[in-house]
Write a structure and sequence with these properties.
Elements lengths: L23 H29 L6 H20 L1 H9 L4 H24 L2
């Protein structure tokens, strides 16, 4: 139309050059990069799904839990001598053994309770 409204514009409907029009080397490089991106996105999607299902856990939380599990028994048993030293003074060998067994059982129970509550 003469008034400039409507009608075909210059270049309208023209398809842009696609990557297959490029040289073969660039096409191969582009295809490899695109395949790598798709594979990467598929891996990310899979990891997100595993996390949503509870099959994947946070690495930092595992490290913190392992640290706690390792420290709790060590700290509990290291505190044992200070806890029972005054209790054992002046006792017979049999009484000392009974008190040690009792304190070790109590310490193991403290550890068990701590691990079950973590």
């Amino acid at each position: 139309m003469a008034n400039g409204h409507g009608g075909a514009r210059v270049g309208a409907g023209h398809k842009t050059q696609i990557v297959t029009d490029a040289t073969a080397d660039y096409f191969v490089e582009y295809s490899a990069a695109r395949a790598k991106e798709k594979t990467h996105l598929a891996h990310i999607t899979e990891l997100k799904e595993l996390k949503m299902r509870g099959e994947l856990i946070d690495k930092h939380q595992v490290i913190a839990d392992a640290d706690f599990v390792g420290r709790l028994p060590r700290d509990s048993f290291m505190a044992l001598p200070e806890r029972i030293a005054s209790l054992l003074a002046g006792r017979t060998e049999r009484e000392i053994m009974e008190e040690l067994r009792h304190e070790i059982r109590e310490t193991l129970q403290i550890i068990s309770d701590g691990l079950n509550n973590s």
